[in-house]
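Appendix B. One record, verbatim.
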Amino acid sequence: MDVPALRTSARATDADSGTGMVLHLALFILLLAFFILLNALSSLKDDKVGVVLESVDKAFSRTAEMGGTAGDIDRPGLIAEAATAIRRIGDQVLAEIPLAKLETRETPDGDRFVLTVPETELFQGRDLRGDRTGLLHRVADVLAPRQVGIQVRLEALMSAGTGGDPAEAVARAGALARGLVHTGAPAGALTIGLEPGGTAGTVRLLFGIHDPETGAVRLSAEAGR
């Protein structure tokens, strides 16, 4: 057996192992330096980060609100809360717009809270008035989905009475629909249309509550108070 040859081979193996370790360590240091450099060059925009975090928080909050089973949720309480929210909007509008009217009507599809408002109090020409943005936000909040599928729905009817311009009514209906969706109202909860037999110069907002278990919701005389 050639002992010197074996010793030479062992030394070569040790040298190769040492070289590989050095290369591995060098690569690790280079990668570490690269990421440190990226971190130093990057900058967070607090406003954008805040928007993202708020959006994520709202998404998970809404998921939690929509959770639960029918057995552990007070359905009548949810319906009463929705009715109260609708009436609260009506009371706010009555305080801001003296000519507005709020009433409750029975229909085949359930009871409706009917809010009648002069067109000039919502629109300037064919566009929504700028000072009604707050009202749109409040309506959008009321139309947000609730637990176990309970949903407030809105039917907005533009008057197209005798002497009125149908094109104007159509344009205003479109402006109202876009404004509500833009402020967060779910499109599926909205119905926008024209009312040929309606009182000229008015807009009627019909709020109803839909329960997937019972369909039409009948509200007592004290509902929402």
